[in-house]
Model the fold of this input.
Amino acid sequence: MPDLSFLLAQSLSGLTAAMFLFLIASGLSLIFGVLRVLNFAHGSFYMLGAYLAFQFVLWGGMGPGRFWWAVLGAALTIAIVGGLVERLLLRHLYGKDELYQLLFTYGLVLIASDAAKKAWGTQQLSLSRPPGLTGSSRVFGTMLPHYNLFILLLGPTIALGLWLLLNRTRAGRVIRAAALDREMLGALGVNVSWLYTGVFMLGSFLGGLGGALVTPVRAIVPGMDVEIIVEAFIVVVIGGLGSFWGTFLGAVIYGQVLAFGILIVPAFSIFSVFALMAVVLIVRPWGLLGQPLGT
Done:
């Protein structure tokens, strides 16, 4: 029987992975909740955010504070790319069948993958942990890297910040109104077109931010976009597509099930996650905290 410190280490590992997943999945869920677009290219924004953070660090070095400027610069660059994609391309598919949107965003995945291979090659890249977060501390008897502890604190902080933005500001009320009745919002004088662009940029920013932050703990390789988008879709299916706190809950559940699934049945750890998703789809197809479409 594993001791408590080992179980805690597994749980903290799962929570760290969950916070990274929440950043990615929250942007995916936000875009779907407002624009009703299943953005399969969201994983590509994550991958490009990782590559751009690596490139910015390569240019500026790993001096004090430079890693964080690289992370912010990568996320903002991805937000701008997302805005251009929405304004110039994606908006022509609004109101059309979801299959066209999926095919279009999958085409973006192929383009982004080839562009990344052309720019950075196919070898594995990585970054060291930023200065000040290179050590570890003992937490309840288990050693926890400082960078992981930072991510564990950053995830809930971003979740709370997004919740305050969506529920305690005028911009947030407008965004929620667009998700409920965009035609009425447009009749009231709100420029829904630019609102869509802003929401898509915010979702892209979150995807790029997750990719930039994951660089010290995960290798940067072509194909990481497909892996993360599958995980993100599992998270939003479990929590409820379009539900903010559902996404957070789904990420936490995913991280814990995966962490302890590896502990219990290593060869079938990923099976436990898909089994959980299947159960949720059967019992509550709209997710744990989501609502059926049209309600």
Summary: The mean pLDDT is 89. The CA atoms of residues 166 and 176 lie 7 Å apart.
